Amino acid sequence: MTLPNFLGIGAPRSGSTWLYNLLRSHPDVYMSQRKEIYFFRNSFHKGLSEYEKFFPGEEVAQKYVAIGEFTPYYLYCNECPARIAQVPSIKKFLVILRNPVDRAFSQFGVLLKAGEFQGTFEDCLAVFWERLIEHGYYSRPLKEYFRHFDREQFLILIMEEAVNNAAHTKQQLGLFLGLNAAKFADAASKGKINKSYLPRYPTLSRCLEKSRRQLNRRPYLAWVVTAARNLRIDQLVLASDKSLPAMKPATRHYLEQLYHSEILALESLLGRELSCWRQKRAS
pTM score, two decimals? Predict the structure, then answer.
């Protein structure tokens, strides 16, 4: 049975796809073809035999130093840490975090892109408060993971720093996962992935999103979703030329004040400063 020896657990809309593609570019790393498996959140009851379908057989697995998957929503699953602890092969965890205000606005863009919401960011907050705002409180779920695993088992990256200094990020990943950092592909760390946009046809976008989720439930069809995402087919076909509704300055100020104590708590938990989040940033 081949199971992963590391997991990417969060956070959504914080550069996880960028990091996933960077890891996939390394010849000594095997990443599941389907980026987000959700096994420990949705399918743990099916047993590990279901999980191993996403990974190579034992003979092929011997070619790799690191085998993993990246499901950003594992971070917010209360049951996940205890479930993951039951899989001895999983020794290390990757976490990438983003300014929570910018993360919330990016999540708004996803809702627009999928045709799940139409309107302003402020209107969206009233409907999707948990998905937009509560998911920016990173310290709470991280503390739960630290109860089950040693802090040294986690590499926690800050998106704004990781993307802007990809060379350093590769070095960090190499040291953490036991890889030769020089083998990461240069092109994998460049460009923006999962760009948000206003859909030209919201109803069609909703149908495609539903189809994507259905395909993702079948391990043998995961490559279809991955290929479509990498080719950015949805952007080519569905993206309109309209800009996303901007966040009002007053809203940004309110959210920055809302997250102030959370950022202090996270700095204390991680033992590092997050000064890059205290500067206003464009989403």
Answer: 0.84
